[in-house]
């Protein structure tokens, strides 16, 4: 697997993203968060702007990187992969 985990506890989302500590993000009252699997998060809200900001805040902790293709992705997002260093 990816090695990233998510869980909802009280009014916080707890993300284990490979750091030495879990990342706790407070969930706004308008947004409902549902963790489907350990690696899939569903966000729902009537305020589209706040929802986008919250999703971007979560994603900012591990942005997708083009070499390994790891990171937090939106559903259906494709990462354009880059070639690594070429050996001589």
TrEMBL record:
Gene Ontology terms, MF aspect: rRNA binding; structural constituent of ribosome
GO cellular component terms given for this protein: ribonucleoprotein complex; ribosome
Keywords noted in UniProt: Ribonucleoprotein, Ribosomal protein
Keyword Ribonucleoprotein: yes
Signal peptide annotation: none
All copies of domain Large ribosomal subunit protein uL6 alpha-beta, residue ranges: 1-74
Pfam families named among the record's database cross-references: Ribosomal_L6 (PF00347)
GO BP, one annotated term: translation
PROSITE patterns, alphabetized: RIBOSOMAL_L6_1 (PS00525)
Gene3D superfamilies documented for this protein: Ribosomal protein L6, alpha-beta domain (3.90.930.12)
Family: Belongs to the universal ribosomal protein uL6 family.
Name of the protein in its database record: 50S ribosomal protein L6
Organism: Phaeodactylum tricornutum (Diatom)
